[in-house]
Amino acid sequence: MGVHALFAQRLSIQQQVARIDSLILYRNFEAGEKQLDHLYDSIIQSGSRHELRESELRLLLNKAYLYKENKKESNALKAALDVIEAAEKLHFFEIEYEACLMAALVYELSNEFDLCKTYLGRAHRLYKQQHLESLYSHYCIRVSSYYRFVKQKDTALYFATQGFNYARVYKNKRDYLDGCLLLGILLPKHDLEGAVKYASLAAYGFLELNDYYRASSMYNNIAHKYLLRGDNDKARQYNDSALWIFNNNALPANFQSFKIRYLLFDTLGKVDSAYYYFRKYHDAYVAANDSIKAANIKKVTEQYENDKKQAIIKSKDRQLAFIILLLLVIATASFLLIRKNRKINIQNKVIRKQVEELMKMLEQKQVLLSELQHRVKNNLQHVISILELQKESVNFNNIDELIRGNQNRIHSMALLHKKLNVSEHVNEVDLEKYILDLSELVKDSYDTPRKKISMDVTCTIAQMSIEKALPVGLIIVELVSNSMKHAFVKRHTGTIHITLGQDIATGKNILYYADNGRGFDFNKHSEKGLGMEIIKGLIGQLDATAKSSPGNGFELTLHFK
After folding, report:
1. Which residue of 50, 99, 137, 504 pairs with 83 in a disulfide if CB–CB is 3.0 to 4.6 A?
2. Which domains does the chain have, with CATH numbers?
3. Whole-angstrom distance, CA of residue 183 vs CA of residue 225
4. Where are the alpha helices (DSSP H) in 189-310?
């Protein structure tokens, strides 16, 4: 046979295999099996069997699936083991992987969990070695089912979630529905909404595939979860749906539906109806499981008869328990009421204490307000003194400069009181914020677009009393004003440094001021400028020692307590 003819034959067979897969997926087993047998015989009898071995093994794997669906587990296992052996020799790793999972499924159905685990492990090794990501969902579903039966629910839930996610990514419909089925079963009781969601998705999907048995089982599973929650109405609705599917699709007797029914009526206290469905449940269970012996049925029936006789006794016990519970609730409520009253009394004592403290604080605030008014009066006296000093220097040439200087001095006092107003301590000011704001305010009052004077201010003293903060602020106002007016007359750029800190050795405060302007000697300055007189007067008020370093620019260091 030519290469082109062989390629065409292989393509035709692959298309037929895909069609058989679809028939099996949609539960059309009769047509699927018929086409499968016909195609399988054609491959066996063809002269190109060796070239078509992969398709032959896939058909045999589908045959194993059909055997399993028809309850012929031994035939399914033999077919799966034959595929594993042949696929291993021919290095058809995907087929070997899927056959291992089929063998694991058959062993799981036969309760041979050790052998099931062996083939699951073999499949996992193939997945790791061959990177079979697109088929990983199938492994996750099978291993989740295994862990479910060996009572490792958390691990089963983890792999069910993995299987669902991988199936959704790689569009593996059968694994997607099996993932929904497992999640609907395995999700914890408190996640009823999630369990119902996935079980419903599984039911809808199974109905689309004509898998009415599994769809009905999903509705029964949802009904059972609502029954455990105590929602009898919803439990009955889903159980009705399950029975409707069975009754309208000529399916074998469904013992699960009858079991839910009898549990539902038993919960409702309808003993006769519960017993009726209990008998139907056992009849259906016997029909579906030939291994159940008559003695076991008799034993279960007798047990149920005894339960029926004890129903009235249990009802009375429940009434007695309800009365006891009611008395406990009344006693608990009385205890809680007494405890609440005690708590209220304690809270009232705390409130009274807080009111007393607030009254004391109000008295303190009134005292502090009087002190603040006294401070304002003293500061106004400072302003008056400065204005008196200016009488001799006033002329029409520098009136604007005098007004701006006085504005800056008054701003320094106003800013100081503003800082005091937002502080809890009326006699102390946040020094760093005060100095930063004040120096920027004075600089901005002299700034012009042509000059770019930068300001570097550092303050490591957290708070200072108003008696010291006011003269310190006024000194800075005068120094910055002098720098802005005189130091940078012939320059467009410059830097002013202001540092306030504390000498650790002496415990004294240090004010350091410097600019890189044209400079002047503070100690030898003979002009009768008002600013210099104010600075020296304020230095005296602080009882500070002054040190100036002549040279490039201007430097002044003050030490004060």
Report:
1. 99
2. 394-560 (3.30.565.10)
3. 13
4. 192-208, 212-229, 232-247, 255-267, 271-288, 294-309
Q: Give the whole-angstrom CA distance, residue 431 versus residue 32.
A: 91
Nearest of 212, 217, 175, 226 to residue 199 by alpha carbon = 217
Q: Would you say the C-alpha torsion 334, 340, 341, 343 has a positive or negative sign?
A: positive
Which of 33-37, 88-92, 162-166, 206-210 has the highest average model confidence (pLDDT)? 162-166
Give the DSSP letter of residue 223.
H
Contact status, residue 561 vs residue 546, Cβ threshold 8 Å: no
Q: Rounded CA gap, 384 and 367, in Å?
A: 26
Select the highest-mean-pLDDT range: 113-117, 319-323, 434-438: 113-117
Q: CA 326 to CA 320: how far, in whole Å?
A: 10
In percent, the amount of the chain with pLDDT more than 90 equals 29
Averaged pLDDT of the chain: 80
- What confidence tens digit (pLDDT) does each residue in 282-315 have? 777 666 554 433 333 233 334 434 554 665 677 7
If pLDDT is split at 50, 70 and 90, which confidence band does 35 have?
confident
CA distance linking residue 182 with residue 202, whole number of Å: 9
Residue from 146, 210, 202, 204 nearest 175 by CA: 202
The predicted structure's pLDDT at residue 520: 80
| Cα–Cα distance for residue pair 178/145, rounded to 1 Å | 10
User: Which one, of 62, 71, 72, lies nearest residue 28 by Cα?
Assistant: 62
Q: How many Cα atoms within 13 Å fall on the side-chain side of residue 264?
A: 25
Residues 6+ apart with CB under 8 A from 262: 273, 274, 275, 276, 277, 278, 280, 281
- Specify the range with the lowest mean pLDDT, choosing from 96-110, 313-327, 421-435, 507-521: 421-435
Mean pLDDT of 408-435: 66
Percent of the chain with pLDDT over 70: 76
Look-up: residue for tokens 């291994």?
291
Do residues 559 and 545 touch, judged by C-beta distance below 8 A?
Answer: yes
Residue 405, pLDDT above cutoff 80: no
Q: Which residues pair with 513 in a beta bridge?
A: 498, 556
Three-state secondary structure along 311-372?
HHHHHHHHHHHHHHHHHHHHHHHHHHHHHHHHHHHHHHHHHHHHHHHHHHHHHHHHHHHHHH
Find the largest Cα–Cα distance for the chain.
Answer: 130
For residue 292, what is the enclosing H or E element? none
Q: Please count the residues of the chain.
A: 561
Tracing tokens 């059972």 back to the chain, one arrives at: 224
Q: Give the residue among 249, 199, 202, 201 at the shortest CA–CA distance from 224.
A: 199
| Residue from 148, 141, 128 nearest 102 by CA | 141
